[in-house]
Amino acid sequence: MSTVGYDYTLTRTLDAPAGKVWAAWTVADDYGAWAGAEEVVLDARPGGSWSTVMVIPGGARVPLSGGYIEVVENKRLVMSMDVPGRDEPALMTVDLAAEGERTRITLAQTFDTAEERDQAEQGSNFLLDGLTAYLATA
Questions:
Q1: pTM for this one?
Q2: What string of DSSP letters covers the chain?
Q3: Alpha-carbon dihedral of residues 34, 35, 41, 47, nearest 10 degrees?
Q4: What does the pLDDT read at residue 2?
Q5: Which listed residue, of 7, 33, 37, 54, carries a Cα 20 to 30 Å from 62's Cα?
């Protein structure tokens, strides 16, 4: 990620082992179940790609796609996301730290503007809320 810009970092501790959290991010059916996503395709390997249609509150459908830059099983994902109007994809880093039967997850991104950062941070909090709820029942 760029070292210049507007960044955010979100950290939560989840009541699930790292392997279960990893599967939630890397198995298409699992991801779709908690992320409010349809038509999920995940090829979670360096150089692999992903695509999905996010269904946001209110019912709007937003197609998203990108790639995987770094993949370290049960520990780290660095993903790109193609953003219309941007020359370069946005990057998101997902770090997992096993804490016994719990997992600390950290999401981080950097953007060119405060507005982009604020929108992405809101979306990431929404994702983490969905992930937390999914893991509580999965």
A1: 0.90
A2: --SSSEEEEEEEEESS-HHHHHHHHHSHHHHHHHHTEEEEEE--STT-EEEEEEE-TTS-EEEEEEEEEEEETTTEEEEEE--TT-SS-EEEEEEEEEETTEEEEEEEEEESSHHHHHHHHHHHHHHHHHHHHHHHH-
A3: -110
A4: 43
A5: 7
Contact predicate 81/92, CB 8 Å: yes
Residue 4's pLDDT band (cuts 50, 70, 90): low
pLDDT class for 60, splitting at 50, 70, 90? confident
Give yes or no for a contact between 109 and 7, defined as CB atoms under 8 angstroms apart. Answer: yes
Q: How many CB atoms lie within 10 A of CB 6?
A: 17
Tokens 């953003």: give the residue. Answer: 83
Q: Domain 6-137: give its CATH code.
A: 3.30.530.20
Residue 111: which of 86, 79, 129, 84 has the closest Cα? 86
